[in-house]
Amino acid sequence: MQESKIKFSGKLLEYCQAGGNINFGYADGDLGTIQIPKTSVINNENMPQWIRIEDVQSTAPNYVTRLIRGGFKPNNMALNGTLQEFSFSVKHQTGEVENVKISRVLNALPVVLINEQYWCMYNLRGNARIVSDQILEIKPNLEQFLRDCSDEDFIKYSGDAYKGTDLNGLKFTSVTNDVGTVEFMYKGWDDSNSPGLQGSITTCPDGYKIPSQSEMETILGNFAFSENQLPYKWDRGDKGIWEIDAFTKPISFKGTSYADIKVYSSKKQNEVGQIVFYGLGNQAENSTIYSDYSFVANTNDRIWQFRHTIYDLRSTNSWATTQYLRCLKEPGFFIY
Q: What is the pLDDT of residues 285-312, one digit of tens each?
């Protein structure tokens, strides 16, 4: 078989298969470059909105370099899981034509735009890498929904807890012990995997990532406040005034009272976007859930702590307990 005159780099090279087919699971942002001889002509008519081909400076003599980028359409839930394809051809001076087909499976999670970044609306659940396991409904006002919903729905929309390197979420449940007392725990917790979780980009569906501490700090600070201070005004100087709000919801499960759970939210004053953080506590050993705190994983061995007994949230060092996963959209994409 004649060697291709097209030179691929980046993800295009990584995923390139025989016959010029490039199949991504999901990818956006900079997908890589193609280099073609200056005497060749690229035909990219009928290019779909989700992809762009841009001229960039070439580092190879007698070659033209083009960057291929994938776009992101926020909350494009109707097309979730569908195959997006784009084909183009390159005609060489010899008359030979090479065809290239790029495809990806669309990954869409409900997101909210906060401070120029797209944050996932919900905690992850099920297999943290699989989109179809996640909550895919869009709630225009999630905070109000959580205030009004049943305890059963609150537990459902809280997502799952995660531990160690296991990507399969642990679901909130209860058991009755030998003396007839109801105990609450995360189903499937065992001692075979350290409960501490190190968040990473491979913990989320393709196209999303676990936020770093500094990324969390763009929307949250370290706060302790009383109920009569709500919504708490966070003056960030040239970054504007932010509103940190919270409310308490008593939760019962299967007829037994569990705990008072605090739900926290953050938004920039006079902007629409609001992110809501919540959970059902943490479990550090194979016994019961500790309902006083919920934790959200960050990278760099950090977690964000949300307290349920008082209004208190802050960043802290990670420790050996279950954590919730909240994703952030990976950067580098364009909006279409």
A: 888 899 999 999 988 778 899 999 999 9
d(CA 114, CA 266): 9
- The alpha carbon dihedral of 182, 187, 188, 193 has a sign of negative
pTM, to two decimals: 0.91
Compute the distance between CA of residue 245 and CA of residue 143 in angstroms, rounded to an integer.
Answer: 10
Give the CA distances from residue 193 to residues 96, 127, 294, in Å, rounded to whole numbers and listed in that order.
Answer: 56, 16, 19
Q: How does DSSP assign 210-238, residue by residue? A: PPPHHHHTTT---EE--GGGPSEEEE-GG
Is the N-terminal amide bond of 61 cis, ω within 30° of 0?
no
Give dist(CA 327, CA 109) in Å, integer. 10
Separation of alpha carbons 91 and 71, rounded Å: 26
Q: Which of 51, 207, 89, 28 is nearest to 10 (CA)?
A: 28
What is the per-residue pLDDT across 79-130, written as a single tens digit (0 to 9) for each?
Answer: 999 999 999 999 999 999 999 999 999 999 999 999 899 999 999 999 999 9
3-state helix, strand, coil in the chain (%, to 5): 10, 40, 45
Task: Give the span between the Cα atoms of 122 and 238, in whole angstroms.
Answer: 29
Helix (H, G, I), strand (E, B) or coil at 132: helix
Residue 193: HSE in the Cβ half-sphere, 13 Å Cα cutoff:
19
> Token match 């299967």: residue?
254
Instruction: Please answer whether residues 170 and 125 qualify as being in contact, where contact means their C-beta atoms are separated by less than 8 angstroms.
Output: no
3-state secondary structure of 13: helix
Domains of the chain: 7-105 (2.60.40), 111-335 (no CATH)
Structure token pair of residue 86: 């784009």
**Which residues touch 68 (CB under 8 Å, ≥6 apart)?**
12, 30, 31, 32, 33, 34, 51, 52, 53, 54, 102
Nearest to 278 by CA among 151, 131, 164: 151
